[in-house]
Amino acid sequence: MHASPIMATASQNGNAAVVIEELDKHFGNVQALQGLSASIHYGRLTGLVGPDGAGKTTLMRILTGLLEPNAGRVTLAGYDVVRDNDAIHVASGYMPQRFGLYEDLSVMENMRLYARLRGMDADRNTELFSELLDFTRLGPFTERLAGKLSGGMKQKLGLACALMARPKVLLLDEPGVGVDPVSRQDLWRMVQALTGEGMAVVWSTAYLDEAERCESVLLLNQGQLLFDGPPQTLTTQLEGRSFRLQNVGAERRAVLTKALDLDSVSDGVIQGAGVRVVLRAGAETEQIQILADQVQVALTPVPARFEDAFIDLLGGGPGGTSALAERLPPVELGSDIAVSCRNLTKRFGDFTATDNVSFEVQKGEIFGLLGPNGAGKSTTFKMLCGLLKPTYGEAQVVGYDLRRATGAAKSRLGYMAQKFSLYGLLSVRQNLEFSAGVYELEGQTRRERIEEMIDTFDLSNWLSAAPDSLPLGLKQRLALACALMHRPPVLFLDEPTSGVDPITRREFWTHINGLARKGVTIMVTTHFMDEAEYCDRVAMLSRARLIALDTPDALKQGAATTEKPDPTMEDAFIHLVESAEQNEEVNT
Amino acid sequence: MTVTPPRTNETSGQVADARRFDLRRLRALVYKESLQALRDPSTLLIAFVLPVVLLFLFAYAVSLDAKHVRVGVVLESEGASAQTLAAAFSATDYLDARFVHDRREVADMLVSGELRGYVVIPQDFEQRMALRGSEPLVQIITDGSYPNTANYVENYSRGIVQSWRTGLDVGAPPLTIMLEPRYWFNAELESRRALVPGAIAIVMTIIGTMLTALVVAREWERGTMEAVLSTPASVTEILIGKLLPYFVLGMLATLGAAALAVYVFDVPLRGSLAALMLLSATFMVPALGQGLLISSLARNQFLAAQIALFSGFLPAFMLSGFLFEINAMPAPIRALTWLIPARYFVESLKTVFLAGDIWAVFMLNLLAMAAIGALFFVLAKRVTRKNLEN
Fold it and tell me: What is the pTM of this model?
């Protein structure tokens, strides 16, 4: 490829690795990208940020030459993505959103395959291989099948394969999804090293704390570019609008509801024992100050976050009142303990997935289960809701022993699975009817409950639609409606907001907070650290063991150092997991 | 980890490489596919266990030979002639006769499927026999819901009555010409000998079409295709890398099936092994091509399996002349069979096993298979693109 015009384009744009001009892309009637113009530079980490369905993946696929634009022009490393498609595949490394490697091949076999596909010889490039293995810390696992790696290690392997033959532009599509904070930190470290050496890296994400770490951000919403520049530029516009109501304590959920219902408040979340609010543009602090005085807590200004700016750009978060919780009668239970387990253990052959875990959860508590991938969260969770039989130990839900009265216990709990587990071939109404049916609701009650759910979750316009065709937020509402049909006193949520955008997530938590205030006990697993902040208490699992169990604030305090006096939940997580691993190594 | 900042001349070289068909990339893809095939128990199950099961089924369980067909013989007449006729029915191996005196008894058994037909020797049988110039009447009732068996019962009963009559007219000159049949290629007329070679075509269709369609669809389903498509590997390399291992697998399965046929099922291989392998290799072209075409249309395994079943397996089973003779089919269906590659293969297989190397037959069939295969490949190449656009 010695054609000069391409070289000329490359030099014209100076340091630009990717140039996008008036890009349009549609699928049938759906406009995925609209009039997009931007450039991405070498030696820089560029975040491609936006809620679900914003067009991030479509843009990534166009950049790698896997999709063709309907209008406009895109060049990558000076090559046109359509005309010089072959060159694009040489100049770029791409890591798809879904793990794209062969699960039945080992780490080494996958790497060798990708090396050869990119014109390298594993035997002659041993140096590169050992560098990559070192870099990704996959060295000890070369013989392991890729399918048996944890989520974080899979992503690192994907990165290693995408880095083969040293691409000039590295495109990573949501590498942080389903990856625990420790592995996420590793990925960041690797990517930062690469940009330091001149590579252009594009990292797409729906996590806004990730966006904040990027040097430059392209913010997409519904196919349109809302912002292009360093995240700080956007964040500074919000300066002076973020506040925290300190140490609200037990009343924090009620306070959040009240705060969100104020005209002057655009967005609010719970942070441990406090409530963090963002005021609308031009709004005074008067209303929120009155609220703070009412509950007798201090109102402190806090630095703005990228997430604040994002929600603000999209017009603010949802209101604070949950129509669902309003209608629910308060939960009455015989005992104050809703869920408990003692010495809970699960072994699969030689492998211990859950090792001697004990805890008690109070009625009306939001209880979080956190831990790195493969720590045993899901196994523990599944034993608590009766989907797995423990090898040893016992678990109780509202007084029923899960080993003996599985059926009775199950009828008293609601379960919302990770992927929502809705029936794609049934309509929305049929899904509701089905879940009413499995929970043995009949006649009048059944009709009333279904109507109630349709009403509270605003599903009436979608009744005959297939769940798969719904936007994610609606799908989530429907899944929640199905799980709550029988008004269970205990609700289990397994990574309920994985891959869901911040606005939908807030709406979801409004309902969950409302339910907790009515006395519903919530058990939740999550990878989102800001969701852990909503919990009353958090149980941290690592390598099958319970390593910590406390309030989010206490966990954060435990991780405080002189350099980091005010650690985030993520810092606390990393601190806890790493010190648990060190302890284990010392002991063995 | 050192990443060199953009160096244009180096990339230009790599870009030029990317545009050439590259044997190293192909080798890497073939190696990967072989590892996957060897590690996936379902592949080995389909390639080696399924053929054995199929061959055993066709060799032992499926039989087109009608022997011991259960029929009833209703003896309404008690006369001596009637008795001898009844004896003739009980003497043959081909019918399993059951004697009763009342037709109501057998009528129920025919309805319940215990009998496939019955013969009535009526009360006036003796009287009619006695009268010169009058033919005795024997009634044959058959189960028309099994047309083949019904035909068979009718013809055989006719035959028995006829030969019984010839035996009676001792003095009369033999009016009928005796036919002395000889069955070529399959002297004992054992259907197994015709079925087992044909079953190899079924096995090859399963491996070539079904397995290929499944493994390509699996790459789409698991998202691995997206990652491979983003590398410099070309569509041709990716597809050939997919097909080669399954071609080899198909040939190995053929060898295995042929060995079973010859050594276990006693089917003679009158032609040469080389001819058999050449025919099989040529059949793999349309079989793989069809699998490839299916997989580029259906990007999930379930759909791919369904399409492969209906467009590959069933036609190979029913329209290839394997189970049902093509000459017996109505004209439109007969015309349709010209499009089924398995038809040429089944004919060739029967020839190479039962008759020998008859190149006049082979050449036409080879040409037809190659032509259909080429058509599939051209279509598949046209619908497969190196991107995710539909």
Answer: 0.75
